[in-house]
Design brief:
The protein is an alpha/beta fold. Helix content is 42%, strand content 17%.
Amino acid sequence: MTVYAIRSLLVVCVVLALALVPATPVVEAQGKGTIKIATQSPLSGGQAALGEGIKLGTQLAIEKLKGNLEKQGFKVDLVPFDDQAKPDVGVANAKNIIADKDILVVIGHLNSGVAIPSSEVYKEVSLAMVSPANTNPTVTDRGYANVNRVCGRDDVQGVVGSEFAHGTLKAKSVYIIHDKTTYGQGVADFFKADAQKKGIKILGFEGTEEKSNFDPIITPLRAKNPDLVYFGGIYEQAGPFFKQAREKGVKARFMGPDGLDSSDLTKIAGKAVVGMYYTSVSGPVTKYPQAKQFAEEYKKKFGKNPEPFAAQAYDATAIAIKAIEAATKGGKAPTRDAVTAAVRDVRYTGITGAVEFDGKGDPKKALY
């Protein structure tokens, strides 16, 4: 949805006064063009709930925080792109994004496997990307000056999950499934490595792109009778898997990473996921310092509660807007290079807490 800046101009015509008073300059910011902020996230398909949350969190931030730029005469627009959670679509969108020189920042993506190739395109023109959700280490380990994220990393999230499985759940064995994506397999690898160090027996480690019939996985899994089943992936695939596993008699506890953190998981899997566990770099919005006001404004504006990563998208956008303001010199729209440089200098305390970037573009402190 494009956000249009609406201005009202009160014109008072006093003919006699105008006849007597010489013309003077109008003391009002003149239109200086449009500054655009793009989002890239899945807006269609099975992951649309989280992707829409990213878009709407960005939209709300723009509407609330664009005032200073508007006072300088700029129109500030949101330009949302649907990457469909597909790398090739994300890259195609990225090429369209860099072709529009008014776009100064991208807020996205949801999926690391889409973000990594898309950010290679952004890098070509030094277009800043601030991610609310991408957790794979490769996103920032490449050392690109234009790539940043406000969330944590999977090399920590996987370890946190393993620590919980070992210390809290007292799991002695685990069967690990992943979705073969950069994100899902990556976090599963980190979970597996740390679980092995802690003495948890790995009974299986299997990747699948299947989304409907999981019998070939469930049958051997059930025979091995693990204490825990860990699914590295996204809720749209994990939900049917967990549902079928319970229906076919799997008694193990279920666990996964933040890709399972969506209200749609229970809609898909129902009672099968009651009592399951997942780690998250987003967490319930109610746990954050400024969450109450954000949640109320979000629901009032959009008629529903914010999904995970909506608050992170808001904060990522706030950082982007602060960077654009800092890079604006002499009333002229800033260059992409200037905005990219300014992002790393922003110190921001928002809905999810204080954000300050390190030299890679990771937050110096991240929550899990």
